[in-house]
Design a protein that fits this description.
heterotetramer, A alpha/beta (about 300), B mainly alpha (about 300), C alpha/beta (about 500), A: about 300 residues, 6-stranded parallel beta sheet, B: about 300 residues, 4 strands, globular, binds adenosine-5'-triphosphate, binds magnesium ion
């Protein structure tokens, strides 16, 4: 096992326990839930956890990692701001002899990292597309997309979704909502205006999806079906009362739990897989009871 | 000078954008779409309106967007915690006014430039908003639904509120001593003081008013979204409002400003965003186009001004 | 005498349709002081601004050494040896006096600014003119008079064959003004062509070799100074005779007006006391500048003094509060209208009514109503604008001064403090303002006057208090002293 | 005035933060951590340094962060496209200088306030950065690795570059006519022009220099991150730099500014961020604390200044 005594200045950590650094990417609902999950699971696993937040800035992320290195944690869990900026992070940590565990995404060079809990964003998009394909049957339908902010996460999601749609479903509008509900609402209002005959809308997260629903309802387009991503408590409630029709659950709780447990196990040289795929569940009205818990209490 | 059409640059750019979009996108000129645009800009209009008055008086509040974020968060927590809408609205507006007042106290009784002080409070308030929400989103269900989504005689309530605020501010600036004092203070604070204007009191009132209007904007935003999420409003919102105000011809140094210009600035930004959506412009180009339009409008305005005052 | 260095022919300049200069000719000869005279707004500043490249003429030519200079710019004019001290005092506020003097020409070695040389050369420039200002002081702290000195020193140091001085002696003390005039004579004797603008007839008659009189933007007459006498000069400028004689005023009452006791503030004012009865005009005489503007700051309530008492109309007025000073019926008119007097962006009417409306606690503001109330003031104080109700910042300096006076003196004061009330105004306006002060005293207002012009003091004051090193050293009834006596009193007071 | 310690407020706050953190977190005072902090602030220091000179001259460039974003994007594309590092660096710096120059042209030859013009170009450039990257991230592999991560005599290269830039700017401001002209222009542009200073040329040079420094900052950022991704740098970076500069005592109105103050401001912001991490302050509180520290520093600075100039 890794020698825990090297973490000399991890004040408060019990002798023999593991210290983890968690570098979170932003302050959204998802990130908050993820952090809670990491903290709670670490407590259960008897690991000490330090946290930092990069506030959506790649430079801050690197700084946070440097700060974690200088406090000499045993391993780092990183919810990255940006997949491609990771290389620098990983190289840094590697040079300092501190392994990195990634959440949500992975990297090509698996050997450089401790492990990863991966959400396959392409597949998330595909699952939503599949639901539309099934729901629409052979009808030709019009679909609108409210994407996130420019960047890999949104591109993968939207790419997976649009490429998987059947030929009978046509994407008539695709605009960025910047992961910002207010912006998404404006976009949705304009979209329903330009395409009053819209049948479906794909929205890159649930916070935006609620705002989009409001915009559609206000424009009298109550029967546009909205599919989204997250599976948060509010999202499940919205599925129940019919505001959203489908969502793909990528539970922040599951990701956080997996990340901590696996990190601890891997540090202890237990024989576990380095990369674990976070289970994805399509939630519709019929399957709401199968929805995994999204956020820790 | 009297013959010159004020804000000609802005109006010219606005007309070009409107004509171009109307020709390319049929849906642009539908009354529904125009109402959409107007509803979308309502929140920004209220913030920009308050800022116009404050900046005319030589002040600056860079924290209005963040103040709105705090208000949104607090109101959402109160509503979801079961408080009545009336109580929530009153508490939220009071809180926002107090935040503004604190800004005013700092600016008036210390020697800190308003921009600096309120940039610091903007950061601080962004953090407070996160704390209030505890990093999560909070939904308010059907509450305040009417304000955010209903119409009166076909006009969205939000628009009615925003228009009322702008008209009131315009009247205050034109026809009241309070408004004229703002011009005098912005033009030359020493002279204002020597002329018997109670400058500190006026400043506090102006900052508190800006705060209250930021709070109102926050409530309007909340009623539209039906939820408060982390990073709603904040500095980004503020920058849009500042852009609208300065494009509208209000001086950063104070002493000059009109609500009409601000309204035009707000409308221009709203119309451009709407046009970019309707024209299906690639999202990567949207920022470029918005920036370019702002720049062109500013330059035309600038050339026009060059003629009159050196 | 050789040919002219500068020859101006047929210059016309309009601002927004209104002509500020029409078809003006002007010749400047080396070794000659050429005075420009005219009423406020006659176009003097505009003409010299065309010479120094600030404005470009719409029509006409400017020749330097026989070469036409179309599109003359400031930099080009400077290279041609035309130096200019503009009417509006301007220094770079954050820089030191030394750097302001050396600006644009900082001594360098290997491209590196040598600070010791900056200071010593600036010191030389000042001491060469007999000016005693610490060159390490920040320019922002200087009084208007000191600023003028620094600007003159700067331009003189730069040298040049043409030196333009636009009202250099406005609001300078008699001593300082004499210094400036001495300097001008020296430069003239060195062969410099000096353009000298001033509203003081005596001063101009004493110094000018040639005088050009402007009226409404056109040249009325240009001739050697010897061919003018004071009366014809005034007639040329104004178009009529101007008399500003001391009228019979009712004797001052015994009621107390302003009473200042043991006022102390910094180095400028130390244990200063003065009493002015209602209906009396008392002039404070002494080194202008520091003490004078300090008095304004203290009496207006802008700044709290270190010690002292003030009562107005027999009622105690606390220091350090503008509202208290105003409520006590004291009205203070600044000598620095640009920073402390007017709001340049606001209209003439609004500036006129700015204080009055606040005193009356009006809450509503209507343009038409304002214009109706302002109209009689404009008439009474002779405020002239090119058109309508423009921003006050666009008026000529003299007209701005009239707006400033009207703003304060209409408000039925118990007592007032006037700092250089005729700063930069023309001879006709000066007479009008003097008459207004007479009338003010006649109405029983106590007037404390701080003026840098001895002529003005003799014309207006009943009594003179001479201040030196911040305290009162002498008191005289005006009847006892002549104008020259006054000057020597002021200067001599400094020595005792 | 001579006896007064300049920036006393800032230094006091900085000392308090340092002592407090050192007592509470052992790792704070390790040389490794201190070097980390200094490396982290290097990029910001370069932007803030350029801005200090420009603002002292009465200018403002709100687009430096966005200019850095564009530079980062262009350099990343060039490097990943196989161009040599040398060519890339030269092209990137030139491009950034040209962008700055364009800002300068707009500000100098139209009547648009610098803040307004550069706010518009900031938006525009943020969009351009997205276009250059085509919305994706671009990695540069091992290139420029040395600059971003290596040290010379134990000191990170980034820090060396930043320190050099700041010292140079400081010297320029104190000992060259170029620097003194900046003070004169900021203090009173009219006087500067009358003194024979070629104000337009100076302005263009200053804006181009600010642009080039933004470009340098962009390259430094790229070398640290090893990749350029959408939303790297941009307005957020700009706001941090502006905060550092104004906290350091440079006047928004021009005519007053010191590099030492800016350096202190940059260090304060960096130390606070580091301290908050090491002290394990909840991320929601971090913004609150940062804002509060800025505000306190500004207020103390302000009181101090109140004594000297009214
Ligand atoms: N830039 C300008 N724009 C518009 N009008 C101007 C401008 N400059 C001068 N004027 C007008 O031109 C006229 C001449 O002004 P000028 O300053 O030359 O007068 P002056 O003789 O110097 O007066 P004073 O004795 O008050 O200094 C005035 O009516 C003034 O208002
Ligand atoms: N925008 C403007 N419109 C009309 N007149 C103007 C304008 N700007 C300046 N002027 C006039 O230009 C002339 C020259 O200005 P300058 O600053 O030299 O003198 P001034 O206003 O008399 O200065 P001061 O008030 O400090 O004595 C003045 O008559 C001034 O009123
Ligand atoms: Mg003049
Ligand atoms: Mg004048």
């Amino acid at each position: 096992a890794q020698d825990a005594d090297t973490s000399a200045d991890s004040g408060g950590s019990k002798k023999g326990s593991v210290s983890l650094g968690f570098v979170n990417g932003a302050n959204t609902h998802f990130h908050t839930c993820l952090q809670k999950a990491v903290e709670q699971t670490a407590k259960k696993e008897d690991a000490k956890v330090y946290t930092a937040n990069s506030k959506q800035d790649a430079g801050t992320e690197l700084s946070n990692i440097e700060d974690m290195i200088s406090r000499n944690v045993d391993a780092l869990i990183v919810q990255t701001v940006n997949v491609d900026a990771l290389d620098g992070d990983i190289a840094k940590a590697k040079a300092a002899g501190i392994p990195i565990y990634l959440t949500s995404v992975s990297t090509d060079k698996i050997s450089d990292i401790l492990g990863a809990a991966v959400v396959d964003l392409t597949e998330v998009g595909q699952m939503d597309a599949d639901w539309i394909a099934k729901d629409a049957g052979s009808k030709s339908v019009k679909v609108g997309v409210v994407a996130g902010a420019p960047g890999a996460a949104s591109d993968l999601l939207v790419g997976g979704f649009t490429k998987r749609l059947p030929a009978t479903a046509k994407v008539v509008a695709n605009q960025p909502g910047m992961f910002n509900p207010a912006k998404a609402q404006d976009v949705a209002e304009n979209m329903i205006q330009a395409h009053p005959d819209l049948d479906y809308a794909f929205v890159a997260n649930e916070e935006m999806a609620f705002a989009v629903r409001k915009a559609f309802d206000a424009a009298g387009a109550k029967n546009v079906k909205i599919v989204s991503v997250n599976g948060s408590e509010d999202g499940i409630a919205a599925i129940k009362d019919g505001r959203l029709q489908a969502t793909v659950s990528n539970s922040a709780l599951t990701i956080g739990q997996t990340a901590v447990k696996q990190s601890v196990d891997l540090l202890a040289d237990k024989k576990v897989d380095k990369v674990s795929k976070v289970p994805l569940t399509l939630i519709t009205r019929d399957t709401v009871d199968q929805a995994p818990q999204y956020c820790p209490e | 000078m009297a013959l010159r059409l004020p804000h000609a640059g802005l109006i010219a750019v606005l007309v070009v954008v409107i004509v171009f979009t109307a020709l390319r996108a049929d849906s642009f000129t539908t009354s529904q779409n125009l109402l959409n645009v107007l509803r979308q800009i309502s929140v920004n209009a209220v913030i920009a309106g308050g800022l116009t008055l404050l900046m005319t008086a030589g002040g600056m509040d860079f924290s209005m967007g963040s103040n709105a974020a705090v208000t949104t968060a607090v109101a959402a927590q109160m509503l979801s915690g079961g408080h009545s809408t009336a109580v929530t609205v009153v508490v939220a507006l009071l809180l926002a006014a107090v935040v503004g007042l604190v800004n005013g106290l700092v600016v008036t009784f210390t020697n800190v430039a308003p921009f600096v002080a309120t940039l610091a409070t903007a950061m601080l308030l962004d953090g407070v908003a996160l704390l209030v929400l505890n990093g999560m989103s909070v939904t308010i269900g059907d509450k305040m639904q009417a304000l955010g989504n209903s119409t009166v005689a076909g006009v969205p309530w939000l628009l009615v509120v925003a228009a009322l605020v702008l008209v009131l501010i315009g009247l205050v600036m034109r026809f009241t001593t309070f408004g004229r004092d703002a011009f005098a203070m912005g033009g030359n604070e020493h002279v204002a003081r020597l002329s018997g204007i109670n400058v500190p009191a006026r400043k506090l009132a102006l900052y508190a008013l800006a705060g209250a209007l930021a709070g109102l904007a926050g409530l309007m935003l909340l009623s539209r979204l039906g939820a408060s999420a982390p990073n709603t409003a904040g500095l980004q919102t503020q920058l849009t409002a500042v852009a609208a105000v300065v494009i509208g011809g209000t001086s950063l140094a104070g002493g000059r400003g009109t609500v009409a210009g601000t309204a035009l600035g707000v409308v221009l930004l709203g119309v451009v965003a709407n046009a970019l959506n309707l024209l299906q412009v690639n999202s990567n180009y949207q920022l470029v186009v918005t920036g370019a339009v702002l720049l062109v409008a500013a330059v035309i305005n600038g050339f026009q001004r060059k003629g009159s005052t050196p | 005498m050789s040919g002219p260095v500068v020859r101006v022919r047929g210059v016309t300049k309009t601002f927004g349709g209104a002509a500020a200069l029409r078809d003006v000719d002007l010749d400047l000869h080396p070794g000659e002081v050429h005075a420009l005279m005219g009423m406020n707004g006659a176009g003097k500043s505009t003409l010299v601004q065309i010479l120094s490249g600030v404005h470009q003429a719409d029509r006409g030519t400017v020749e330097v050494d026989g070469h036409a200079q179309p599109g003359l710019t400031v930099r080009r004019a400077r290279r041609l040896g035309i130096a200019s001290v503009p009417q509006r005092r301007e220094l770079a506020a954050g820089l030191t006096v030394a750097e302001n003097i050396m600006l644009g020409d900082l001594p360098r070695r290997h491209g590196v600014v040598t600070w010791s040389a900056v200071n010593s050369e600036a010191e030389q420039a000042l001491s060469g003119l007999g000016i005693d200002i610490d060159v390490r002081r920040a320019a922002g702290e200087l009084t208007v008079a000191e600023q003028t000195m620094v600007e003159v020193a700067r331009e003189v140091r730069r040298g040049g064959r043409v030196l333009v001085l636009d009202e250099p002696t406005a609001c300078l003390s008699a001593e300082a003004a004499a210094q400036i005039r001495g300097l001008v004579r020296r430069l003239r004797d060195d062969g410099v062509a000096v353009v000298y603008i001033s509203h003081y007839i005596d001063e101009v008659m004493g110094i000018a070799d040639r005088i050009t009189v402007l009226r409404d933007g056109g040249v009325v007459r240009s001739a050697p100074a010897a061919e003018f006498d004071a009366a014809s000069l005034v007639r040329g400028m104004v178009g009529r005779d101007v008399v500003s004689a001391r009228p019979e005023r009712p004797a001052p009452t015994d009621e107390p007006g302003i009473s200042v006791r043991a006022l102390s503030h910094g180095r400028a004012i130390r244990g200063f006391s003065v009493d002015v009865r209602r209906g009396e005009v008392v002039a404070v005489l002494g080194p202008a500048g520091d003490a004078q503007s300090s008095l304004f700051d203290l009496l207006s309530g802008r700044v709290a003094p270190d010690a002292g008492q003030l009562s107005v109309g027999g009622v105690e007025v606390p220091f350090g509060k503008v509202s208290a000073s105003l409520a006590g019926g004291l009205r203070c008119v600044t000598g620095d209208r640009r920073t402390l007097g007017l709001v340049p962006e606001l209209s003439v009417d609004e500036n006129l009514m700015l204080a009055q409306d606040r005193l009356e606690r009006r809450s509503w503001h209507r343009g038409r109503d304002l214009a109706r109330r302002a109209a009689p003031l404009r008439r009474r104080y002779g405020v002239v604008a090119l058109a309508g109700n423009p921003a006050v910042g666009t008026l000529s300096g003299g007209n701005q001064q009239k707006v400033l006076l009207a703003k304060w003196l209409q408000t039925a004061p118990v007592a007032c403090f006037l700092e250089d009330p005729t700063n930069g105004v023309d001879i006709a306006a000066m007479a009008e303002i003097h008459a207004l002060v007479d009338e003010l005293a006649g109405r029983g207002v106590a007037v404390l006057l701080a003026s840098s012009s001895a002529e003005e003091v003799v014309r207006l004051a009943d009594r003179v208090v001479v201040v030196s090193a911040g305290r009162v050293v002498a008191q005289r009834s005006v009847a006892e002293v002549s104008q020259d006596g006054l000057v020597s009193l002021a200067v001599g007071g400094g020595g005792s």
